[in-house]
């Protein structure tokens, strides 16, 4: 039976023909998608957040990266090759130990490469004024009179045992913007702690 559409007489499409056309259209689209897949959008490195880092911290990480690549990596590859020569790998403790070390080293290499590529190296000696990144700060516990000295540094180089305080830590965040003589309060697992800023240096 003819149908009237937009002022024109048309004939209805048989169901079997319509189904076949729909199948061909879907197949063509799938083939086109396979030939030109939709790319996965990766964030541009320029859009990623930079990591503030002191010159000393950057140098230390770069040195560690070079050591891992030129010393540790070749040594592990050699150890794996030697372990393979011992036969059955399923019960080869030396082989599995070497592979575990390899996994750790390769993971650390990728981590260091990321840190270094995103590093915003700052020379603290060029800074001055209230506490900010790079400052070396001496504080005193107002309850115990115990003095501590920290340098506020980037997360990858932080090491409390060496007096390098992560800028994202609660104490560092409380210190930012403060001056000599100011007091801060920091919430710790043992309760609230109060500190006074004794000195600020940029070295």
UniProtKB/TrEMBL annotation:
One MF term from GO for this chain? translation elongation factor activity
Q: Indicate the family of this protein.
A: Belongs to the GreA/GreB family.
Q: Name the UniProt key words of this record, in alphabetical order.
A: DNA-binding, Elongation factor, Protein biosynthesis, Transcription, Transcription regulation
Q: What is this protein called?
A: Transcription elongation factor GreA
Return the InterPro entries for the record: GreA/GreB_C_sf (IPR036953), TF_GreA/GreB_CS (IPR018151), Tscrpt_elong_fac_GreA (IPR006359), Tscrpt_elong_fac_GreA/B (IPR028624), Tscrpt_elong_fac_GreA/B_C (IPR001437), Tscrpt_elong_fac_GreA/B_fam (IPR023459), Tscrpt_elong_fac_GreA/B_N (IPR022691), Tscrpt_elong_fac_GreA/B_N_sf (IPR036805)
What residue range is the signal peptide?
Answer: none
Q: Does the keyword Transcription apply?
A: yes
């Amino acid at each position: 039976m003819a149908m009237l559409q937009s002022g024109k007489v048309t004939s209805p499409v048989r169901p079997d023909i319509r189904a076949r056309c729909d199948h061909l259209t879907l197949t063509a689209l799938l083939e086109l998608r396979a030939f030109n897949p939709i790319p996965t959008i990766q964030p541009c490195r320029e859009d990623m957040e930079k990591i503030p880092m002191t010159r000393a911290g950057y140098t230390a990480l770069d040195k560690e990266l070079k050591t891992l690549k030129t010393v540790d990596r070749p040594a592990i590859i050699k150890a794996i090759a030697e372990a393979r020569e011992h036969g059955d790998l399923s019960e080869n403790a030396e082989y599995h130990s070497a592979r575990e070390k390899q996994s750790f080293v390769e993971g650390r290499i990728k981590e260091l490469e990321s840190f270094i590529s995103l590093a915003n190296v700052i020379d603290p000696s060029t800074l001055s004024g209230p506490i900010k990144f790079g400052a070396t700060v001496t504080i005193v516990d107002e309850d115990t009179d115990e003095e501590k000295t920290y340098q506020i540094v980037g997360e990858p180089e932080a090491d409390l045992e060496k007096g390098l305080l992560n800028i994202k830590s609660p104490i560092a965040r409380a210190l930012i913007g403060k001056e000599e003589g100011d007091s801060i309060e920091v919430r710790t697992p043992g309760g609230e702690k109060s500190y006074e800023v004794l000195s600020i240096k940029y070295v």
